[in-house]
Amino acid sequence: MPAADSNDVAILQQVFHPSDFTPASETAFAHALKAALVAQADLTILHVSTKENSDWTEFPGVRATLERWGLLPRNSSTSDVAKLGIGVKKIQARHDDPVESVTAYLKSHNADLIVLATDQSKEQFQWLSKSVAEPIARKTRLMTLFIPKGLNGFVSLKDGSISLNSILIPVATVPPPQPAIQAAVRLARRMNIPKGVFNLVHVGDKTTMPAVSVPDLPGWTSNVLTKQGEVIDVIVETAAEVKADLIVMTTDGRNGFLDALRGSHSERILRRTPCPLLAIPAGGFISSVM
Questions:
Q1: Residue 255, Cβ neighbours under 10 Å: how many?
Q2: How many Å apart are CA 43 and CA 89, to the nearest integer?
Q3: H-type helices in 147-252, by residue range?
Q4: Which end of the chain, N or C, is more open, meaning fewer C-beta atoms within 10 Å of its C-beta?
C-alpha cells in the first residue's frame, strides 16, 4: 500500500456548527470544537431563533469546555483561546426557517466542514426537511459531519478524549469511494489515533468491487468485506458488526450539503446509523484534494 499522505496543507480552515442549544447539539459542538483544534481552524457557531433576542448564555461555553478538557487554565480569557490556534465566532440570527438562515449564511461565508446534530426519530430530519431551491456552488466544497441524537459520538463532551478505532467506508463504483478513504486516513492521522481498523464494505461480488487504495498508517489495518443484500441494510448491519465509531462515505449530491443527502443512500443510512456519519461530496473541493 502507498504511504500515507504527509502533506500538511490545511484542508480545514473554517468549521461551521449550526446549533439549536439541545443536548444533541452539545455533542455536535464537542465534535466541531475538536475538529477546529486539530485543524487549527476557525469555528463559527450559528444559532437561529424565531425570537427577537436569544440569551447569549445559552451558547455552548467554549472556554468552559476547553478548561474541562484541560487545555486552558480555570478562569481563562478570550485571548487564551486564540493561543490554542483557533478563532471562535458566535452568531445569532432571527428567522422562521433555520435551513434558509443557514444557507443564506453560507452564500457569503466560507466553510470547509459543517458539524450538526440530527434527530433520527423524526419523520424527516430538521436539516433535510426543506428543499433548497437555489443551488449554491460554494457548498460543493463542504464536508458534513452528522451526529445523530442520543449518540455520544467519538469525541467526549466531558473531557475531549477521542474514541475512534473502527471506521466503516462503504465502497461502490458510484460515487467514487477513494475520497472517503483518503478522508478517513487523514482524520485518523491528524487525530493521532495509535491503532484502529479501516473497514471497507462492498455490497456485491468481489468482481464488482472497484479498485481502491488504502494509504499505510502505522497501527492501522484494513479489513475488506464483500456482502450480499440490500445496500442500506448491509451497511447499517456491518456498522454494528464492526462496532464502527464513524461511517465515512462519498455522496453524489452536488448542490450542497442538504441536497447531497436528500433521497440518497447517505440519508437512508443516517436514519438508522449506530454512529456518526461523515459525508464527502463527490466533485467538491475536499474530494478533489483528497
A1: 17
A2: 6
A3: 178-190, 231-241
A4: N
Distance, in Å, from the CA atom of 167 to the CA atom of 188, rounded to the nearest integer, reads 9
What residues contact residue 239 under an 8 Å CB cut-off, 6+ apart?
168, 247, 273, 274, 275
For residues 44 and 17, the answer to whether their CB atoms sit within 8 Å is yes
pLDDT in tens, 4-41: 444 455 678 999 998 877 787 899 999 999 999 999 99
The whole-model pTM stands at: 0.86
Can you spell out the DSSP letters for 43-78?
A: EEEEEEESSS---GGGS--HHHHHHHTTSS-TT--H
| pLDDT digit string, tens, across residues 125-145 | 555 544 332 332 334 357 889
Domain ranges across the chain:
14-283
CA distance 207 to 192: 35
Decide: 96 and 50 in contact? Cβ < 8 Å: yes
Assigned CATH for 14-283: 3.40.50.12370
